[in-house]
Amino acid sequence: MMPHDSSSTAEAGIEEQHLLVERARKEILQRHRTGPRTDAEPPIRVMARIVQDLERECVERGLDPAAVRRGVVNRTIGDIDVRRITEWEGEPGGPTDFRSLAEELGIALPGEDLNGYIAPGDGYRWLREQMMHAERRLLATGYDPRVYDIHSVGNPVLRGLLAEDMRQWGMSVSGRHVALGLGAADCIDKVLRGIAHLARLDARAPGAVLFSAPGFNVPELQAASYGYRLHSARTRPEDDFKMTAPLLSQSLEENPDISVVYLIVTNNPTTFAYSPDELSSLQEVLRRFAGEGRRIHLVADLAYVGTGPPEEDRARMRSLTSATDLADRTVYVGSWSKTHTLTGDRFGWVVFGDAGFAADMGVSWTNSVGSLPGEWQLRFMAYHTLFRDRPELIDKIRGLYRLRRSRLRRQLETFDKEHGLFDHLYLDNDTTIYNWSRLRPGVDCFSVFEKTGIAGIPGSTFGYSDDYIRFSIGILPVVNG
């Protein structure tokens, strides 16, 4: 009699579970395709709902959680969950042990198990001690974060620190140029609200906002709510999906109502970043129209500036900030949500190129957020100290992003050979936390999910074609890449 091979039996059981998850996936998608549809539900919500329904179905069927994790991979969400990082190389706790990021960022609780790495909690305690020091520093300047801040733009110490940070990009500003916000989206909302308010004070309509497609679409909803008209400039693959000077010029000539241009300097979803020369060309177009009497504000979204090679980010930002003649109509929106994996903390800020413009915009902060939470500002200051003292943490975060992007590309290439899914797998500029690729004719995000178990977001979510799909490396690690 042959001896029983328990490992073979276990492997057979795992493969059977994988097949059951695959069957459940196909059944859920079949129900979606044949069930009632509504055009009012955006594609990103449709995909999110399908993933949630499938995960719930797998639980109800009692399927192995490990098989479900392998067969249902949600790559719709962009945020990095540092508690779920599993990647590590070399010695545990070493510079390439990415599991320790949660400890080093002060997020992991003392004694928390991070996929085999036990957090001592030193970072957690240090961060709170720094918050105490920050509060003492503010009180010494006469600012009490525990009382109502009538100006609502945030404490002067932190604003001054963020202004100093702009000097690395050749921009000389003070705290008077800076206003704090609860993440980049909140900051953009306040900027659009403020510009619309200033227009109405001059008995003018807010005008219109120009967006490039594909692009992050939340500001479109914000702009519409404040009475702006929306214009979209469709970019081309041969231009790496970037706004070109001719396209911007054409859009401004054809739409004289445009008062705001929204520019994502390092793009979501496409992962391509503007070069210094490309930014200079766009500014030259704005300069020409300014000479004709047009007042057009440039809102530069920097949410992903910091995810790429530092020298390249520095070059593009120095080019952008060098146009001092456009300072009074340029707004820079920063955030640590993606660059520093701190999405839940909502650290965002705005830098206005002109102090007078910043003062005029203050009413938008006063009449919206009311007063920024004192505890939030103290935590923001503590993190500013952390990244100033330990810049290597930023390099580590970039390293994690680079590792996951390369693994995801290899995984998608493997699936493409097996299923014939992609017409073009685009390389990124070593930036952001996404992959943007073109699907083959007849393939959509739902058939990709059915064949691979990876859920992405269709291109129409970003004002483009569903021939394209965006995947995120965020919440979940990339396995078997």
From TrEMBL:
GO terms for molecular function: pyridoxal phosphate binding; transaminase activity. One of its GO terms (biological process) is amino acid metabolic process. Residues 208-473 form the Aminotransferase class I/classII large domain. InterPro entries: Aminotransferase_I/II_large, Ethylene_sulfur-biosynth, PyrdxlP-dep_Trfase, PyrdxlP-dep_Trfase_major, PyrdxlP-dep_Trfase_small. CDD domains: AAT_like. Keywords: Pyridoxal phosphate. This is Aminotransferase class I/classII large domain-containing protein. It comes from Nocardiopsis sinuspersici.
